[in-house]
Structures are given as C-alpha cells and as structure tokens.
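Can't paste images in this forum, so I'm doing it all in text. The chain is below; anyone willing to post the predicted structure tokens underneath?
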Amino acid sequence: MKEPESFEIPEECQKLVMERFENARKNPKSLVDWEEAKKILNVK
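Text version of the structure:
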C-alpha cells in the first residue's frame, strides 16, 4: 500500500481554518447545507 503524502500547511492557513471552525461553532445558523450552496454557486 502506498503511503499518503504529507504536506506542510502554513501557520497562517491553519489559523484561518481554525477561525472559520470557531465562527461556524458560534453561529451554526450561518452555515448552508451542500445542496443550498450548489444553488448559490450555480453548480450542477
């Protein structure tokens, strides 16, 4: 079995993701489910 590749994620990117998780946790009503997001983005 092939080993998964590992990538270094810059600290500023990690911080941004953690901020977004925290915002989602604090404001769950601001989240949109995938089907609604596809409509907003016009994805087929």
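The chain is about 55% helix and 0% strand. The CA atoms of residues 15 and 23 lie 12 Å apart.
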